[in-house]
Design a protein that fits this description.
Layout lengths: L3 E14 L2 E14 L3 E5 L6 H8 L7 E6 L2 E2 L4 H7 E4 L11 H11 L4 H14 L15 H12 L6 E5 L7 H16 L3 E6 L2 H7 L2 E6 L2 E6 L1 H8 L2 E7 L17 E5 L2 E6 L6 H10 L4 E7 L3 H9 L3 H5 L2
Parallel strand pairs: 3-8, 3-9, 6-7, 7-8
Antiparallel strand pairs: 1-2, 1-4, 4-5, 9-10, 11-13, 11-14, 12-13
Adenosine-5'-triphosphate binds next to strand 1, strand 2 and helix 1.
């Protein structure tokens, strides 16, 4: 039997603050395999942080159960804590200490012996490229540096499972790329990871499987590839100089699955559109059709979100 890293069954969390009750996590079930990068993608308020807090024993569920690293979340809290690492959405570093002191403090809490501690601290500092800033007060760190130190701290004690809540929120593209690389590096070392994000491209690039979360529920769960396949084919739109043409000519291309005329654009549906453009241009030339512009669109996780919720992630942010 293959051991699962995480098993979640009917997990629910209700907050009763005054008169308003919120079901932040609503009967969620899923499991994560060992070595997998599992993503939870959803807009603000979807319940991602609440779910992470429950799985890392920081919050008690209202009902339901979960096993993390083989241990029961409520009955075996200490064992769960020993096997996991957490990278919080809000940096949880001590600003009055240096980077190295922050790491040392954390390593002591995990009972790491001095020799092992020092060796591992050097290793993780190197991994996140903070060796030359190690002895600077965290107060003097930039946002990106804090985030990297936070990440280093998360995997300092060799956790089996690492939880990352919005690991690249608000970072520039360069730092985000660097963090993506560390995450992939950790994966090669066999660390199981659960990360939340509201960046489509992050979920797409990093995750083996993605659960799309909205209003406390996981509405769909699959690999990014399968999720995008659910939405369908690539779309190529052609802007023609003369829109009053017989678009049926494009039926001669056997890879074209569907043709639509939309606001003067010819929209062609097909698979692997990037390989088809030359054939399309050739046919247009043969038919004497003058093409002004070509646009290729691949389905994205954004489209998946739109498809399942009826609204965009951007719209969802304001609801
Ligand atoms: N301690 C709390 N007390 C009451 N309500 C809470 C509490 N924590 C979270 N909530 C509510 O639960 C819902 C989910 O919040 P959560 O922070 O889990 O969302 P999120 O998906 O992490 O959002 P974001 O993308 O903004 O981080 C929200 O409606 C929030 O207001
Ligand atoms: Mg959150």
């Amino acid at each position: 039997m293959r051991a699962r890293a995480i098993e979640v069954e009917n997990l629910t969390k209700r907050f009763n603050s005054g008169t308003a009750a919120v079901t932040a996590v609503d009967h969620i079930s899923f499991s994560v395999d060992r070595g997998e990068i599992f993503g939870i993608l959803g807009p603000n308020g979807a319940g991602k942080t609440t779910l992470i807090k429950i799985l890392t024993t920081l919050l008690k569920p209202t009902s339901g159960m979960a096993r993390v690293a083989g241990f029961d979340l409520t009955m075996e809290r200490d064992e769960v804590r020993e096997h996991i690492g957490i990278v919080f959405q809000e940096p949880a570093l001590d600003w009055r200490l240096t980077g190295r002191e922050n790491l040392d403090f954390h390593a002591r809490m995990y009972g790491m012996k001095r020799g092992e501690r020092n060796k591992r601290i050097e290793e993780v500092l190197k991994l996140v490229e903070l060796e030359d800033k190690a002895d600077l007060l965290v107060d003097k760190y930039s946002g990106g540096m804090k985030r990297r130190l936070e990440l280093a701290r998360g995997f300092l004690h060799h956790p089996e499972i690492l939880f990352l809540d919005e690991p690249t929120l608000g970072l520039d593209t360069h730092t985000r790329r660097a963090i993506w690389n560390y995450i992939k590096e950790l994966r090669r070392e066999g660390v199981t990871m659960v990360l939340t994000t509201h960046y489509m491209e992050e979920a797409d690039y990093l995750c083996d499987r993605v659960g799309i979360m909205d209003h406390g529920k996981i509405i769909v769960l699959d690999s990014p590839r399968n999720l995008k396949d659910l939405i369908g084919s690539d779309l190529v739109s052609l802007e023609l100089s003369n829109p009053d043409v017989n678009i049926e000519a494009f039926r001669k291309l056997d890879f074209v699955r569907d043709i639509k005329l939309y606001h003067g654009y010819v929209i062609l549906k097909m698979e692997r559109a990037e390989l088809r453009i030359p054939a399309i241009m050739e046919l247009a030339a043969e038919e004497g059709l003058e093409i002004r512009a070509v646009n290729l669109r691949k389905p994205s996780l954004e489209d998946v979100f739109l498809y399942f919720t009826g609204r965009g992630m951007g719209d969802a942010l304001s609801t």
